[in-house]
TrEMBL record:
The keyword rRNA processing does not apply. Its EC number is 2.7.7.7. This is DNA-directed DNA polymerase. It comes from Sulfitobacter brevis. The keyword Ubl conjugation does not apply. One of its GO terms (biological process) is DNA-templated DNA replication. The lineage of its organism: Bacteria, Pseudomonadati, Pseudomonadota, Alphaproteobacteria, Rhodobacterales. Belongs to the DNA polymerase HolA subunit family.
Length: 332
């Protein structure tokens, strides 16, 4: 059965131990790994590994020794509780092994949890799980976490942010890789250890990582300082380094949100930026009104890049948006 990303969030929080299994797949290895980790923790509990209720195997191992999956599914452990057999990096080379395991599964067997990369719609592994009546297949997209996901992460970390801190954390969630964002929350948990007061912007500022790599900082400063003629050369360098267009847009959005916050709230703390004085000067030159317009341009660009019908070169769309922003910033 297909499990939509929206329904998957609830299922990962409360997985059904009576189901045969689930396939979790997507192009971002870290995002897939985090969802798999959440599912297994909520399905098996925190002590599954030490109680030997979880058996792990790779697709390569399974292809070399097909019987290990069925053995893991049928094995009865010493410790009571639900069990699972995890198959990582699945591909069509092990399709028949997975189909046989799904067919042989019976109530009381270990649940089959499979992870894979960016599987095509024609993938035999994907079709096997989608066609099964008691197994799920769910894609994990490269979208940043929504507010509900962020709130759940904060609840799990026992953090209670005020409105300003929550806005800052939303920005960080869009700009950082999922693993980096979770590490930031872990750092905040340690930072607030023994402190029962709400999480405030200053706390986020103390624990937030710097915004971007130095190379990406270059293009952000070029745009923020309205140096339109420098955008092309810097974008060519970023393209040669393999920078992703969506990631670049997210980083730019985060940076301009920081500038907007500075312009709209003079004197407020400035967090997560390499050169705070430079950012303050840029925000003053732009002003809150123009920065609000700039954020609209970046949001439209982000939506265009993620659109299914988008066919233009992605980095060219970003470069065009940056030139438009630089020209906007130059207006007085």
């Amino acid at each position: 059965m297909k499990l939509s990303p929206r329904d998957a969030t609830g299922y990962f929080a409360r997985p059904d131990p009576a189901k045969t299994g689930i396939l979790i797949y997507g192009s971002d290895v870290m995002r897939v790994a985090i969802k798999r980790q959440d599912l297994l923790r909520n399905l098996l509990g925190a002590k599954a590994d030490e109680e030997m209720r979880l058996t792990r195997m790779s697709a390569t191992e399974l292809r070399r020794e097909p019987a290990i999956l069925l053995d893991a599914i049928k094995a009865v452990g010493f410790f009571p509780g639900p069990r699972a057999a995890l198959v990582e990096d699945a591909n069509d080379n092990i399709t028949q092994i997975l189909i046989d395991a799904l067919a042989d599964w019976q109530a009381g067997d270990a649940q089959i949890v499979v992870t894979g990369g960016d599987l095509k719609k024609t993938s035999k592994v994907l079709k096997a799980f989608e066609a099964h009546k008691t197994a799920y297949a769910t894609p994990i997209y490269d979208n940043p976490p929504d507010r509900a996901e962020i709130e759940k992460l904060l609840k799990d970390a026992d953090l209670s942010p005020d409105s300003n801190a929550m806005a800052a954390l939303n920005d960080l969630a869009r700009a950082l890789a999922p693993g980096d964002f979770r590490q930031t929350l872990e750092k905040l948990t340690l930072y607030k250890l023994g402190d029962t007061t709400p999480l405030v912007l200053e706390d986020v500022a103390a624990c937030a990582p710097t915004s971007t790599e130095a190379e990406v900082d270059d293009i952000l400063h070029v745009v923020a300082e309205a140096r339109a003629s420098d955008i092309g050369p810097v974008m060519n360098r970023l393209q040669a380094q393999g920078v992703n267009a969506v990631t670049l847009t997210i980083q730019a959005t985060r940076y301009f949100r920081a500038l907007y916050r500075i312009a709209a709230n003079p004197g407020a703390p400035v967090y997560g930026l390499r050169d705070r004085d430079r950012a303050i000067r840029q925000a003053k030159n732009w002003g809150a009104s123009k920065l609000e317009t700039a954020l609209g341009v970046l949001t439209d660009t982000d939506l265009t890049l993620r659109s299914a019908g988008q066919r233009a070169p992605a980095l060219a769309l970003v470069e065009r948006a940056f030139i438009r922003l630089a020209m906007l910033g130059a207006q007085r």
